[in-house]
Design a protein that fits this description.
Layout lengths: L1 H6 L12 H15 L2 H15 L4 H11 L4 H8 L3 H15 L4 H12 L3
Helix pairs in contact: 3-7, 4-6, 5-6
Length: 115
Amino acid sequence: DAVNAMRAGAVDYLEKPADPDRLLEVMRRFRGVAADPEAVDSLRRDARARLSRLTAREREVLVHLLRGETNKEIARALSLSHRTVEQHRGHIMLKTNAASFADLVRYGSLSHASG
């Protein structure tokens, strides 16, 4: 769902049950960002910087994750073990400082957005 939402133009994705404070924070942040092209550019630069920390293999795994593939499907596609994919996924989360999979999807969407 997070991947589809981001592809459709969502600016964030909250998992249920959504924390009310987190919901308000996201609404405030993106209400201001939507009206400020410089803020959007800043978010894109940040996303690209975070993703630039990844190795080539980690970027490959991330592409598959962003397609909505499971760890098993990724392992099969890249001729890796399921455990290796899990390790790459963990490294991706650490290197990008992503708090959730939704963060990764947002970084991926922003880094490829034109503007």
